[in-house]
Amino acid sequence: MNRTTLLSALLMAAGLLAGPAMAAKQAEIQLQATIGPLINVSSVTQNVELSNNGSGNITGLLDFQLNCNVSTIGLELLVTHLYLNGDPSSSDMIPVDNAAGIELHLSAAQPINGSQLVTGYATTAEFNKDNGAFGAYKTGRIDVESTQDNELLHQTVGISASWLHDGDMPSGTYTGYAVLYISML
């Protein structure tokens, strides 16, 4: 055996010199990422101070922050009566002005499916807390669609609501709640 043949045999054995062409082996994995719908809502201010001069309606602007990766959602608002010292068993109560309804303030969305930015309450309801059930009114669903370029809903939603105050109430702090429910359409 000459030196060239011996050197070729050693290089082939070491894998440094290609012998007959061999097909490359491969394995593949297909990757997929599924992004599910994300709907988050939070209150901008935990406590809203409602002011009143002694009689007449008490109104408030309630701000909620929406962060949704969908372009259309349904909104429902529950507003409770205001009870003296936050005690729902108290007979001293300032009722929700159910005739006035609510008004939505949207900066980057519009109503769809026949929904309106001003709407009345659809049903009576209760909102249960540790100290009892707060009487309430709840709107029907208000459908909205994003007008943002990316079709997502990232914005503050302002909601105007009001309560009836007849002026003949004991002084003190009257407490209630507002709850915004979000559903995917």
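The above is record 1. Record 2 follows with the same two-line structure.
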Amino acid sequence: MRHYYSQYNTRQGKYTNAIELRFIERAFAGMPKESLLLDIGGGGGRNAFPQALKGFQVVVTDIALPPLDYVMSRRHASIHAVLIPANIATLPFSECRFDGGLCIQVPDLVENEKNFFPAISNYLKPNAPFVVTISNRMSYKYVIRLLLNRQATETKRKGTGQTRVYLFTAAEILNRAQNAGFKIRAMEGYNWIPFSKGSNSRWIHCASIIEHRLMLQRIPFLSPWLIVCLQK
């Protein structure tokens, strides 16, 4: 059976995965065991299984069945897989059900669905933390994409079924979250490294050290990607 997050076994994948998991751990620190988490677009459970090992109950959702089948094949009692429709506002969950949530590296949903944050707010309990990643148009990676392949960038804007990133600034996306009633509790910039997700370049480790030493995570609004903890 296919491993649905094997791409994160690359050097670049491990780099982004480590940053995301550390941030998620801090965001959910202090939450009681057995808290119920909602993982939007969780695919094969890359983030769900580490949370389940900490004692949380996790509902993993995706619009595709094969990755959810993979999750269920691992038979973890604290993880439940739910196939969801593409319309985020019509998920099969009651209001104020979840103690926390996350949506990691699902830019098509977070950035291009204008009702995303109001819909998510309905499913969370008051004061629940919600961790989300967003790409940032106000970054050097967007400029490079534009210079090297302007036509491809324009095509992605029109929507061709490809993953669309860098369409908005981080400030624009966070403004949507605040308009939906969320407060920004913490944020961190990352993915400054100039390699693709599937890269195994030996220079990734060196680049990650430079990123850390220069404290680029403290410049979120110029960062290619942000990971943010919101609070309802």
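Confidence is low (pLDDT under 50) at residues 151-161.
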